[in-house]
Amino acid sequence: MDAYILDAVRTPRARAKPGKGALSGLHPQELLAQTLQQLPKRTQVDVSDVDDVLIGCVSQLEEQGANIARQAVLVAGWPITVPALSLNRFCGSGLQALSLAAMGVASGAQRLVVAGGVEQMSRLGLGADGGGTDGNNLRLRERLFQVPQGISADLIATLEGFTREELDAFGLRSQQFAVRAQAEGRFNKSLFPVKNPDTGEVLLAADDSPRADTSLQKLGALAASFTQTGAQPAGPNGETLDALALRAFPRAREVRHLHTAGTSSGITDGAGAILVASGEYVKAHGLKPRARVRAVSAVGSDPVLMLTGPAPASLKALKAAGLTPRDVDLWEINEAFAAVVLQTARALEIDLERVNVNGGAIALGHPLGATGSMLVGSALDELERRGGSLAVVTLCTSGGQAVAAVLERV
Ligand SMILES: CC(C)(COP(=O)(O)OP(=O)(O)OC[C@H]1O[C@@H](n2cnc3c(N)ncnc32)[C@H](O)[C@@H]1OP(=O)(O)O)[C@@H](O)C(=O)NCCC(=O)NCCS
């Protein structure tokens, strides 16, 4: 694709509980506006050239409603001529924004596009839009019962035969890698400190979720997070969510509840933004891009298992680029749950050595609509650090979908 990434920035990810967390006092438009403002500062592009601003956000209501992308452009003080679109492909939204931006500039329809994402989960938490897993359409539900993600993750772990110990070991790895990355400043290039817009005081300068004191022993002592959810009666005849999951996958025989707070992605606030340009724009302005978007993809996968799309999405994008998993130097597979990464790596037959080498959402958190755009910056920073060439970023999403992008350092 004739699509280039000029730069990628992100906020730190802040631990979020309803109404609590280092960034919880900030309006989501303000968080996104600060993120957008970083791009012209860092790249010296003229923002009046921006053809569109595409922003992923899952809970688009209340403060994140009213097309948050457009409101943030206005908050940022960008010219009123810069349009903006908010989009939702659940947890894949931030990467979907990059896909659309790359398609836009590669097609020749656009020259300069901002892609990004935002989610303030402390203010609008999981499921805030009230749509549940299926928009509460009982006719669809009768035909296809989509269970909550934690049940899907435990079902995948059961079907794949992963043990609690294997998941915990992955959770520990995520923490250790994230802590090492912070100590070595590996996130510094993308990160910028978020400030109180009234006082200028720094609210947060670094991700505050990683737990340096995590151990296998501590992880092993955590209670499974989705046992009670699985036991909830939800079907028309009082079937539990576990029973409904098993109706779709009887060969599992049971849903083993294995994921805990230590092996699931954390609830956080954050935003990310990426500046994408056409080859023609790069040339005309003598710019030095950081990477080229080689290919992008989206796939649908089983909606009950829900989280197994990253392998086919990655293969689809790699095939479009004429590549195979073996060609990839670095993988960012969103750590929605430990089993997602382990299942994806197994399906792709790739070694974990090149996967999420600086930790992931288990340690750092997962501000839903923002994470995809944040992972792009993390992948580019790490490719540059280690002198690698190709990275794949991929995320599973609710509803049984996934998105992927193949990036090449230039
Ligand atoms: C799994 C989940 C329910 C856990 O929620 P929670 O119980 O509120 O989790 P917390 O992260 O606050 O952790 C609770 C406690 O577990 C312990 N804990 C968590 N992670 C730990 C770790 N790595 N090591 C040791 N203890 C840990 C701590 O005691 C912690 O309490 P503290 O923060 O006061 O120290 C929630 O994180 C979740 O729903 N994640 C998935 C989100 C999701 O579905 N996203 C969309 C799809 S990808």
TrEMBL record:
Molecular-function GO terms, alphabetical = acetyl-CoA C-acyltransferase activity
* EC nos: 2.3.1.16
The record's InterPro entries line, in alphabetical order, gives: Thiolase, Thiolase-like, Thiolase_acyl_enz_int_AS, Thiolase_C, Thiolase_CS, Thiolase_N
Q: Which keywords does the record carry?
A: Acyltransferase, Transferase
Where the record annotates domain Thiolase N-terminal, the positions are 4-235
Q: Which domain of life is it from?
A: Bacteria
Heme as a keyword of this entry, yes or no, is no
Q: Tell me the ranges covered by the Thiolase C-terminal domain, including all copies.
A: 287-409
Which family, according to the similarity comment? Answer: Belongs to the thiolase-like superfamily. Thiolase family.
Kindly provide the name given to this protein in its UniProt entry: Acetyl-CoA C-acyltransferase
